[in-house]
Amino acid sequence: MKILAISGSPRLNGNTDQILRVALDVLESRGIDTEFISLAGKSLLPCTACEACRKEPRCVIEDDFDPIFRAMRDSDGFIVGSPVYFGSATPETMALLDRAGYVARHNGNLFSWKVGGPVAVARRIGQNFTIAQLLMWYMINGMIVPGSSYWNIAFGRGKGEVMQDEEGVRTIRTFAENLAWLLGKIHGGK
User: Fold this and answer.
1) Dihedral of the CA atoms 169, 173, 176, 182 (nearest 10)?
2) Which phi and psi (to 5°) does residue 146 adopt?
3) CA distance 125 to 114
4) Which tens digits make up the pLDDT trace of 50-94?
């Protein structure tokens, strides 16, 4: 079993990266393989609605999309985290998800029955829309999203501040524990 975490933050090792690593630590402690991908420094152009992905399960736009999409496709599930930028997910995050969603849906719903969920990191507001925006993407792709003790959000502005949000860290840990439990049930474990 393998879970991928994708950080949509353009800042390396920032709050979004740090809170996603909290989830990965929990999953690894439960014997689940993990992988982390940061979108920082990657080129991800928006979908152009060319519909070339209807012909084969790939996007024809030449940028950093394809290896990330393959990692998503080959995993048992994935967590996507984004900081809140002006009340929504980052453009990098949405470029990836829009294109991945089109390729997956046009080629047999490649993400159906995968598990995962979104994580949003905010300075002080906008997290509700961002988490809903990301959650809708999971839903339309037929994925299974476990709950937690609260929404998968955490607060912090300066690098590392998110780790001081005790409730946020606890919420993400609980989400990861529920994700591990769900994976075990799906794959015949306890």
Assistant:
1) -140
2) -75, 160
3) 30
4) 999 999 899 999 999 999 999 999 999 999 999 999 999 999 999
Question: Which domains are present in the chain?
Answer: 2-186 (3.40.50.360)
Surface-to-core class of residue 190, CB atoms within 10 Å of its CB (0-12 exposed, 13-18 middle, 19+ buried): exposed
The identity of residue 43, as a single letter, is S
Q: Does residue 137 carry a pLDDT above 90?
A: yes
What average pLDDT does range 122-135 have in this prediction? Answer: 95
Q: For residue 189, what pLDDT band results from cuts at 50, 70 and 90?
A: low
Return the half-sphere exposure (C-beta side, CA atoms, 13 A cut-off) of residue 44: 24
Which has the closest alpha carbon to 97: 42, 155, 136, 149? Answer: 136
DSSP secondary structure string, 47-62?
P----GGGTSSS--S-
